[in-house]
Design goal:
Elements lengths: L1 H40 L8 E4 L3 H8 L6 E3 L10 H6 L69 E2 L5 E2 L27 E5 L2
Length: 201
């Protein structure tokens, strides 16, 4: 019919525009995928750089192609001796390993040995040495902890000390206050999960 024909004539340019846009997006994706190896190789990221990615190691490695030999997962693995990273680090540690960032947050060191100097420990890391009494440096691990704090508790008959045992009251009294165990399995800030990779060449 005339109306059907006019509708098709009207839709033709729209369909053509959609097809052209889809083609353009497809070409852009193909170009980015094919040139990712070149982009990563020429990105001038120095050895020792750590980047975050949305992709797990098998897919990240396949996307890099030949440049995949320049990167490894930041999972604490031993690093091959023929890499530039190993050669740079071998004089500072006995075994050269990638930092293990699996399930861990990153924290900036307080001293970059830069003109900016350092910040107050209260706003940075208040602890200078790790559990082995080694000065914190790049790749150092710090275990989880809770900051020292107090819980003031008002009771009807007495006080609750550090041992959480009420004093000055009959321990058998039925109206003793109790502290509920509440919360998650860990103390954490808001976070987003990503994969981390280390440049070794």
């Amino acid at each position: 019919s005339k109306n059907h024909l006019s509708q098709n004539v009207y839709r033709a340019p729209q369909l053509a525009n959609i097809s052209q846009m889809q083609f353009a997006f497809d070409m852009l994706y193909l170009a980015l995928h094919q040139n990712l190896e070149i982009l990563m190789h020429k990105s001038n990221l120095p050895v020792g750089s750590v980047i975050a990615s949305m992709f797990p190691w098998p897919r990240f490695r396949d996307m890099l192609g030949k440049s995949a030999e320049d990167w490894i997962p930041a999972d604490g693995s031993l690093i091959a001796q023929d890499t530039a990273y190993h050669k740079l680090m071998k004089n500072t540690v006995e075994q050269v390993r990638a930092p293990d960032l699996r399930g861990r947050f990153q924290r900036g060191l307080n001293d970059f040995d830069s003109p900016g100097g350092t910040i107050a420990p209260s706003t940075g890391n208040p602890e200078t040495y790790d559990a082995s009494n080694h000065l914190f440096e790049a790749g150092s691990y710090q275990a989880d902890a809770l900051k020292r704090h107090t819980h003031p508790i008002a009771t009807r008959h007495g006080n609750i000390g550090k041992s959480h045992v009420a004093t000055g009251v009959d321990q058998e009294a039925p109206d003793l206050e109790t502290l509920e165990n509440d919360g998650a399995d860990e103390t954490r800030p808001r976070n987003v999960s990503l994969y981390y990779y280390l440049k070794v060449n």
